[in-house]
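Here is one chain, start to finish.
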Amino acid sequence: MFCPNCGKADQTVDTYCRGCGEFLADLSNPFSLFSRLLGINTPAKQITVNLIINLVTAGVSILLVAFLNGYFDGRAARTSEAAPPIVYLVYVFLGLVAAWQFLSFVLNLKLKARFQGARKTVVSDSSKAVGVCRSASAPTRS
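Its structure:
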């Protein structure tokens, strides 16, 4: 495979180019093609999408618990009828979903910070290596 950015040959798909650091997606994989159509073509963007999904899911779960609690409390105040027991299981389930998504959000934030730190290190190391190669191959005057 050739890098579409710099043209360097012998690249591995779903990794970074050894020449310029561009992410090389596997276009033969249908999931990868779908992701590229949505604009999610790098691991950094995938992490960002995961962060958004985690926050939205946790927020919706918390809002559903609040809505259901308000609805059944209001109904109990008007009619003196207790909420069905299954509602308490729904509260627990939605609370667990919110907690799980929040935990995933925190872990994804750590992963993103670690990923960005590693990416900066690789890019700076490759630019130093290119500078060393250029200076070593430069003709010297005697």
